[in-house]
Amino acid sequence: MRSSNEAVSQRRDKILDYISATGRTSTEIVAKEFGVSVMTARRDLLYLMEKRLISKSSSGLFKVDNNTVFMKDFNFRLKHHLAEKQAIARECLKLISDGDLIGTDASTSVLTLCKMLPTEYKLTLVTLSQVLPIVMENHSNATIVSTGGISLKGHASYVGSIALSTLSTFHFDKSFLSTSAFDPALGLCDYSEELSNKSKLIEQSNETYLLCDSSKFEKKSLHYLFIPANITAIITDWKISQEQLDNLRRHNYHVIVAPEL
Fold it and tell me: Any idea where the HTH deoR-type domain is (predicted)?
C-alpha cells in the first residue's frame, strides 16, 4: 500500500504531465481532473510554483516553465537523440570486459548500448527493463536476469519491492543507467518510483556509469537523487557546451565526451 507522501508525490508528477499536455490550466480544473478538493489542488500547484516548475499568468492560469523536464514515455524516447545515444554507447563499450556482471536500468540509452554488446563476450546482465531481455535473445553468450516487479506503465520498466529485492541479491562489477535530466548540484531526476531502483542499482555496484545525452542538462524536475560520490563517470555527447562541461567538472564529476560518429 502506498504511503500518503508517495500518493501526493505521484499526484504532483501527474499534474505536471497534465499541464504540459494541456498547455495551461486552472486550480478548479486540476481539482476536478484529479478528484481532489480545490484547496488540495491549490496546495499542489503552489508547491510546483515554489519549485519553479510552473508559473502563474496574469489571467490566473498555470503553465510549465520552459526548462522543466517531463518523463516522456518509452516509445517517444526510443525515437529521439539516436545519434547521441549511439555515440555514448560506443564509449561505454570500451568500459565493458568479458565476464562482467552488469546491472542496468530500463532507459533507452542503455538499450542502445546493449544492442552493441560484443556477442563473443560472456556477460551476465541484471535489468529493470522489460524490453532488454527480448532485444538480447540472440546474444548467445549473455545471461539475462529480469528483476521482475510492478510494471511502470508507458516506461517498460519494473519498479517496487520485488525489483529492489532482486537487485539486493547481486553485487555488480558495473552498472549503466540514464536519467531524464541531470543537475550537478542535485543529481539525477526521474519518477520517484524509478529513483528508488536507481539508488539500489548504484549501491550494489563497484562502478556506476551515467549515460546522459547533452539535452538533459540545465533542466528542472520535481524529484532528484543526489549521488555524486557514487558516479564513476558521466558519459555524454559532443553537443555538450563548454559551460555545461566546466560546471560538471567544478562539481568533481569525471566526464567522458563521446565524439560525433
Answer: 8-63
Q: Which of these, 243, 222, 247, 182, lies nearest to 65 by C-alpha position? A: 222
Query: Residue 140 half-sphere exposure, CB side, CA atoms within 13 Å?
Result: 2
CA distances from 155 to 3, 26, 130, 240 (A): 22, 28, 9, 26
Domains (ranges, CATH) in the chain? 1-65 (1.10.10.10), 77-255 (3.40.50.10470)
Under 8 Å between Cβ of 55 and 23: no
Write out pLDDT tens, residues 182-191: 888 888 877 6
Got the DSSP string for 66-107? TTB-----HHHHHTSSHHHHHHHHHHHHTT--TT-EEEE-S-
Answer yes or no: are the C-beta atoms of 85 and 64 closer than 8 Å: no
User: How far apart are the C-alpha atoms of 97 and 116, rounded to whole Å?
Assistant: 14
**Per-residue pLDDT reduced to its tens digit, 233-255:** 999 999 999 999 999 999 999 99
